[in-house]
Amino acid sequence: MFTRMQDGTADDWAVIGAAHMEHFTKTPSQLMDMLRSLEHVTLGFACNQLQHSLMTGTLARRDGASDEEVTIALLHDVGKAVNIPNHGAIAAEIMRPYISDDAYHAIYNHQQFQGKFYFEFLGSDPTLRDNFTTESWYTLAEKLVDRWDAPAFDPDFEVDSLESFEPLVQKIFASPARML
Ligand SMILES: [Fe+2]
C-alpha cells in the first residue's frame, strides 16, 4: 500500500475501494447513534431533540408519507448532534448520497421555512421561505416543516420508538447512490 497518494496503483485502489464499501455498511447505525445522542440536547424547548425527531418522524409516518419523507422527517435535525447553527446543512450533506435532490434541499433549507413561526422574535425575516416558491422542492419543504416538524415539540406525545424506524434507516442508507 502506498504511503504517498502520488504512488498509488490500481491494486492499492481496489483494496481501498473494498474497505470503503465495508465501511459504508456502518452508516445506518451511525445515524441511529447520532439520533440517540439528541436525547441530551434540549436547547430550551419543551422536549429534547430525540423526542422532537421521533415525533416528526411519527407524524410523517401517520400522515401516509413516503419512505423518503419519513426518513428526512426523522433525520432533519440530526445535524444538531454535530453543530446547531448550520445543522440543516450538516444533515442535508450527510444524507445527500442517499436521497433525492428535492429532499436534500428541503432539509438544507428547513430552518428558513420554520422561520415563519419565530424569526420575528429573533429580529429576522419570517418570510424567507417565499424566496423559494418557484423551486421544485418548495412543497416538500413546506410539508416537512408545517405538517411534521413545527408541531413536534410535545414531550407527552406518544412517539413511535427509535427502533421502529431502524428498518427504514437500514433500507434508505444501505448504500450510497453517489459518492460526491
Ligand atoms: Fe426540527
Q: How would you explain this protein's 3D organization?
A:
- With 180 residues, the protein is an all-alpha fold.
- It has a single domain, classed as Orthogonal Bundle (Hypothetical protein af1432).
- It is built from nine helices and no strands.
- Helix 5 runs antiparallel to helix 6 and helix 6 crosses helix 8.
- Fe (ii) ion binds next to helix 3.
Task: List the main descriptive attributes of the protein structure presented here.
180 residues; mainly alpha; Hypothetical protein af1432; 9 helices; binds fe (ii) ion
Itemize the secondary structure elements and their pairings.
Blueprint: H1 10-24, H2 27-37, H3 49-62, H4 67-75, H5 87-95, H6 101-108, H7 110-114, H8 138-149, H9 162-172
Helix pairs in contact: 2-9, 3-4, 3-8, 4-9, 5-6, 6-8
The chain binds fe (ii) ion.
Give a short synopsis of this structure:
The protein is mainly α and 180 residues long.
- Ranges where pLDDT stays below 50 over 5 or more residues in a row are none
Main β-sheet, in a few words? none
**Under the CATH scheme, which architecture would be assigned?**
Orthogonal Bundle
User: What is the CATH C level class, in words?
Assistant: Mainly Alpha
Calculate the mean pLDDT score and round it.
Answer: 96
- Which percent range describes the beta-strand content? under 5%
